[in-house]
Each structure stands twice: as structure tokens, then as C-alpha cells.
Amino acid sequence: xxxxxxxxxxxxxxxxxxxxxxxxxxxxxxxxxxxxxxxxxxxxxxxxxxxxxxxxxxxxxxxxxxxxxxxxxxxxxxxxxxxxxxxxxxxxxxxxxxxxxxxxxxxxxxxxxxxxxxxxxxxxxxxxxxxxxxxxxxxxxxxxxxxxxxxxxxxxxxxxxxxxxxxxxxxxxxxxxxxxxxxxxxxxxxxxxxxxxxxxxxxxxxxxxxxxxxxxxxxxxxxxxxxxxxxxxxxxxxxxxxxxxxxxxxxxxxxxxxxxxxxx
Length: 264
Description:
Blueprint: E1 2-5, E2 8-11, H1 15-28, E3 32-37, H2 39-47, H3 49-56, E4 60-63, H4 66-74, H5 85-99, E5 103-107, H6 110-123, E6 131-133, H7 142-152, E7 156-160, H8 165-173, E8 181-184, H9 188-193, H10 201-205, H11 209-216, H12 218-246
Parallel strand pairs: 3-4, 3-8, 5-6, 5-7, 7-8
Antiparallel strand pairs: 1-2
């Protein structure tokens, strides 16, 4: 079910529903582009209309961050759970291995990419990759990358390039790639390769993976999360105040307050 969250489209889907959509796209070879929405991307969209349009034009806008889940619930939307991009990637690689679909990895460095693919093959010995390419190609090389993806016969494309670069790449070429299921995976290749550790499950459940990222990379991540989380909290607070003024508690249409924790 598609809903609007503070002007941004979101699809209220479970992990199982998202996997089934991806499987259906690969079986029918009808293109389906998935974008994972977290707090950082949501905040960047508000100042980047091109990025906002790229996200809005995606076929599925999944909820990646717990901050989005909590914010949606606070505003009365039935967001039941997040669909973390790294978890969705892991589930879809299992589907590929079981059903014979071939993934294409695009992004990261060549070394990280090789480690990520080796890790995937160790988990799924029957997995066959259609192809791969690192993410450090220049603009004049884009056509060569597109041709390689086209000729690979890939059933799904996972892109590990930063925002907004991957969104701009897909906006320009997604109709030419010939790949049924397309998904941005952020830094999931680093996790799959073992170069970045994921937060323990308890921290994930608390929605504090962003804090664990700061712990691992304080120099790079501290300012990013401090900025985006603060801006998101401000935008959500304004929306909640406007909602409270329209529907005072106890009046018809009032929505009880939701959790106040904010995260990526």
C-alpha cells in the first residue's frame, strides 16, 4: 500500500511482500525499481528536488530506517516494520540461488566487490553472478557500464553507490538496462564483504544502527547523523504540532503520540 509521509511516497510493505514483488518482476521480466528510504535520504530529498523526483518515480519506496517507521506511526500511518536494504539483499540472493536468477553487482571498490561476491557464494554455493563492475567509473564510461549490464542477461541489479549518484544513474539508464529488478543497496557490499560490521541484533531492534555506525566511523558519520537526525526531528515535530492543532486529543481524528526516538 502506497502512502504519503510528509510529502514523500512510501510503500507500507513487509519483507515477505517485498521479496514477492521482486520475485514476480524477475519471473515476468517486467522492470521494478526499488529504493530504500531512510532518514538521511528523506532529509536530502527536501533540499534536492532532483533526488526527490528520482525517489518518487521509483516503483517501490521501501522503509529502510526505523526513524521513518516511528515517524509514520506517529502520524497515524500503519507502518508495521522496516525492510532494511541489507536484509532484503541477503534474502534476494537466497532467492536467486534457489530459483536460478542471476544478480549483477555494481558499486564499491573492485576488492570489496570480489569479497562481497565470495561471501555470497560461500553462503549460497549454487549462486551464479551475471556480472559485476566497481562503482569508480567516470561519466564518460557510463555507456560502457550500461552495455555490460545489458549484455549480462542479469535478472536483478544491486547498486552500491552513494546517494544521489545511483539515483541519477538509474534515472538516466534504468529503461535501457534490460534488468527486471533494480535496487540500491547503500553500503551493503561492505557488510557482505566483512569490511564493515553490522550492529548487533539488539541494537538493530532498538533502531540505533546509526549510533553503531558513528561508533565504527566517528570521523565520517558523526556530522552526517547529527545533522540529518536533527533536521528530521524538527520536520516531524512541526508536522505533529500541526496535526495536534487540527485534531486536539480527544477530538475525532486525533492520533495518539508515537515514539520520540529518531534514527537512520
